[in-house]
Amino acid sequence: MDTEQLSEKILTGDRRALARAITLVESGREDHRAKAGELLSKLAKHKRQSLRIGLSGTPGVGKSTFIESFGMLLTSLGLRVAVLAVDPSSARSGGSILGDKTRMERLSREKNAFIRPSPSQSHLGGVARRSREAVALCEAAGFDVVLIETVGVGQSETVVAEMSDLFLLLLAPAGGDELQGVKRGIMEMADLILVNKADGALKPVATRTCADYAGALRLLRKRPQDPEDFPKALMVSAVEEHGLEQAWEEMQALTAWRKENGHWERRRADQSCYWFDQEVRQALLARLHTAGAQAAMAELSGQVAAGALTPAAAAEQMLQDHLKG
Questions:
Q1: Rounded CA gap, 247 and 245, in Å?
Q2: For residue 217, what are the contacts with CB-CB under 8 A and spacing of at least 6?
Q3: Would you say 88 and 96 are in contact if contact means Cβ atoms under 8 Å apart?
Q4: How far apart are CA 314 and CA 316, in angstroms?
Q5: Distances (CA, A) of 65 to 70, 101, 111
Q6: Which of 191, 195, 194 is closest to 203 using CA atoms?
Q7: For residue 24, which of 134, 114, 132, 124 has the smallest C-alpha distance?
Q8: What is the pLDDT of residues 77-116, one digit of tens each?
Q9: How many CB atoms lie within 10 A of CB 173?
Q10: Residues of the chain with pLDDT under 70
Q11: Is the separation of the CB atoms in 245 and 214 below 8 Å?
Q12: How far is CA 99 from CA 16, 64, 104, 241, in A?
């Protein structure tokens, strides 16, 4: 199937074509990268947009359970939902379990939902390297909401904020006090903090945790893209499906305010510039993986080890010889 046929099928919402396209953009082969670029350029002309929601949280906080319950709520409202879940890859074998469809059994059977797990490979920041392009494909396929679930590695997991319109941080009850809440990094990126598992014996603990984080959020510097009372901390129960409707209402209110005040388009423009910068950096790094560059690196490394060159001088020589032009 050529890119013209593939783009036509994606625009009609063909799920199989969408899955094939995501496989194409995730491929590292040079010919596949060229086709992927051509496909994305064709689809970009249609300017379709979804609400992109990034979701992060520590492992075991219930991200998959929350996404399934939240996704079922959205589909019950007549919305089409795509879930892009990133699974950690083994540092030894490079493999991933990719078990998100198994964990989201109800949502995977829903005709208005699409779930695609992807390996993180060696990419840092909690997302796969081509997650942004997969989001663009889901937008072109006509999904109303795209949920991006990260690996769940902690406070460095902020790259997802550069590809989403709203960033949700899921926390467990007793997940930290106010001092934990004011930590920089992932906390100040969040638009909504959701304290999950607010049910049963954990509900009183969840209430205290939510209050702690609400207090911590008031100590953070005000962001220009937020109306009054945002960011917020809310309690939800993915198992009992409590608090999900309120969370969705808050997301809609925040989205509407940002669109009315010009922050939506400005943020998307800034994100495009960020990814342009990242693509340039990745292309430059790719030049170091050619056979000639690897041989030069080995030779210079030997000179550095022998003390004939300083690391800085060797690096400068390497850059001049292989990253110029």
A1: 5
A2: 181, 193, 231, 232, 233
A3: yes
A4: 5
A5: 8, 11, 18
A6: 195
A7: 134
A8: 999 999 998 765 443 444 344 445 567 889 989 999 999 9
A9: 21
A10: 1, 87-102, 119-129, 152-158, 175-185, 323-325
A11: no
A12: 19, 10, 9, 22
pLDDT in tens, 32-66: 989 999 999 999 999 999 999 999 887 788 888 99
Contact 39, 6 (CB under 8 A): yes
Residue linked to tokens 């309690």: 235
Give the pLDDT confidence score for residue 322 in this predicted structure. Answer: 74
Strand 166-171 versus strand 81-87 pairing type: unpaired
User: Torsion angle, CA of 159/145/132/67, rounded to 10 degrees?
Assistant: 50
Q: Which two tokens stand for residue 44?
A: 């970009």
Cβ burial, residue 304 (10 Å; 0-12/13-18/19+): middle
Largest CA distance in the chain: 68
Q: DSSP secondary structure string, 264-306?
A: HHHHHHHHHHHHHHHHHHHHHHHGGGSHHHHHHHHHHHHHHHH
Neighbours of 325 (CB within 10 A): 4
Cβ neighbours of residue 223 closer than 8 Å, sequence gap 6 or more:
none
| Long-range contacts from 263-267, C-beta under 8 angstroms, 24+ separation | 263/224, 263/225, 264/165, 267/165, 267/225
Q: Which value, to the nearest 10 degrees, does the dihedral of the CA atoms of residues 223, 225, 230, 234 take?
A: -110
